[in-house]
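Table 4 source record.
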Amino acid sequence: MPDATRQRSDALKNRETILQVAHDALADSPDASLNSIAKRAGVGPGTLYRHFPSREALILEVHRRDVDRMVDCVPGILATHAPLDALRHWFTVLAGYVRIKHGLGEALHAAAVQEVVSASWPAVPAAVGRLLEACEHAGDVRPGIDPVDVIMLMSCLWRTPDNPEGAAQADRLLELAIDGFRP
């Protein structure tokens, strides 16, 4: 492998490792430092800063990557679950992601990053629309349900406490919402 190709490959590997470590570190503690993330990723601080010049840049890329993963997993979930179970599963995973927030709370409210958040938003209702369409074709939900309305309704799932009682409450709320979608 030519040296330049190997370097690009190494840089991509480092970037992916940093993103995964940052995802995990920020899930553990929204206050995780960039130096601690670099150390856990097995790279120097300079390598981290070459890829992500600021904490905000790293957090936003973790957010973008997680949203892409949530959206991209819909076909696989639909291939392995009945449509209504796929909808349940997807929203349960989404609720876990939003509950953790990955340190995004403050970063996502800054005016300078609204463009990044806005750019990732359209894919989310599209993913929910695909899940609803599969449920509709299976006869599990009535036609014409607005995906954005469903997201707003399901936002209750990530407002439940992050403990066993909260998980049980989230399950009950999810079933109440789904009952409201039925034909």
